[in-house]
Amino acid sequence: MKKPTIYVALFLTLVILTGSFVRYLGNFLGAAPEFFLMFLVATALFEGPYFGIIAGFIAGLAVDFVSVFIPGSNCLIYTTIGYIAGSMRGKFYASSAGNQLILVVVASFLTKAALALFGETFGTRYAVSVKWVMLTIIYDMVLAPMVFYISRKISSANTYI
Fold first, then answer.
1. What's the Cα-to-Cα distance from 123 to each of 3, 108, 132, rounded to whole Å?
2. Could you report how far apart the first and last alpha carbons of the chain are, in Å?
3. What is the DSSP letter of 36?
4. Which of 3, 65, 114, 118 has a CA between 20 and 30 Å from the CA of residue 74?
C-alpha cells in the first residue's frame, strides 16, 4: 500500500475511534486521550513541516467537527503544532522515548492553554481543570510510545509496505 492510503485509513480509524470510544471514556473518567494530537505530532516529526501543516489542518478540522468549542480554533492550533513538530525533523532525536513523551506533553499542554486563551478571547468559557489536563496528559504519555511506533513504521516504509 502507498503511504497516502495508509494515512487516510489511519485518519478514518481515528475519526471512528474518537467518535465512538474516546467520547465515552471522557465522560466516564473526566478526560480522554487526544489521539489526533498524538498522531499529528508523531507523523509530523517523521514526515516534516509541510506534512505537519496539512495533517494538522485536517486533524484540527476533524476535531472541530466533533467538539462543541469555537469553530476553527482546533484547526488553527493543530496546524501550528503540526508545523512546529514537523520543523523538529532532523533536529530532534525522535527515536528516544523520553523525547517523544516530552513532545506529546508539551503539545497537549499547549493545546489546552491555547483553547483556554481562545475561550477567554472570544467570550466562551472553556472549563479547564487541573485534574482534566493532568489526566489527558497521562493518557497521552501512556499511549504515545505505541503511536510513535506506528508512525515510525508508516514513515520508514518506502513507497510500498
1. 41, 22, 21
2. 6
3. H
4. 3
CATH class (in words) of the domain with range 3-155: mainly alpha
Question: Using CA atoms in the order 121, 122, 127, 132, what is the torsion angle rounded to 10 degrees?
Answer: -60
| Chain position carrying cell 476553527 | 72
Question: Grid coordinates in use for 130?
Answer: 487541573
pLDDT in tens, 40-60: 999 898 888 999 999 999 989
Q: Which of 59, 134, 34, 48 is nearest to 94 (CA)?
A: 48
Q: Are 141 and 101 in contact (CB under 8 A)?
A: yes
CA angle 18, 137, 48 (to 5 degrees): 75
pLDDT of residue 127: 66
Identify whether the C-beta of residue 16 lies closer than 8 Å to the C-beta of residue 35.
no
Grid coordinates belonging to 109: 499542554
Alpha-carbon gap, residue 75 to 141, rounded angstroms: 22
CA atoms within 13 A on the CB side of 72: 1
For the chain, the structural domain boundaries read 3-155
The pTM assigned to this predicted structure is 0.85
